[in-house]
């Protein structure tokens, strides 16, 4: 879900297949280079996402009647965001509440300066991860 609860198509690479799902060779390759979100740039170009903002949530996770969700959905979601940086490699394992709290803070306090800090920290994290993996 995006700004004001609007549902949009979130573009992603298909990295898994089978039952149970297993990472494909292509999936391992793009993950090793941290290029998983490259197709999401199309969402930025289309205007569904900004570069920085709360990460988009699946509609089934969102309660549009909750004031916290109303605040988070009052800003355009982003390609990168505070919750990704704060939760680092455990973002996908974090609870909804853990992911939501940094997004709420961003929605209430975000600014151009905050966006630049988040973009800078994301770039540093991406480069460090590449060095750790020996790819960059």
Short synopsis of the structure:
This protein has 136 residues and is mainly α.
Question: Based on helices, strands and strand pairing, what is the structural class?
Answer: mainly alpha
Taking all residues together, what is the mean pLDDT?
88
Helix content: 40-55%
Strand order of the largest sheet: 1-2
Calculate Rg over CA atoms.
Answer: 15 Å
Count of individual domains? 1
Q: How many β-strand runs?
A: 4
Report the span from N to C terminus: 33 Å
Largest sheet entry: 2 strands, antiparallel
Would you list the SSEs in sequence order as H and E?
Answer: EEHHEHEHHH
Shape: globular
Write the layout of secondary structure elements.
Elements: E1 16-17, E2 22-23, H1 25-32, H2 41-46, E3 50-52, H3 67-72, E4 78-80, H4 82-87, H5 96-109, H6 112-133
Parallel strand pairs: 3-4
Antiparallel strand pairs: 1-2
What does this structure look like?
The chain is globular. The chain is 46% helix and 7% strand. The longest helix has 22 residues. With 136 residues, the protein is mostly helical. It has one domain. It has six helices and four strands, in the order E-E-H-H-E-H-E-H-H-H. A two-stranded antiparallel ribbon has the order 1-2. Strands 3-4 form a two-stranded parallel ribbon. The mean pLDDT is 88. A hairpin with a 4-residue loop joins strand 1 and strand 2. 21% of the residues are buried.
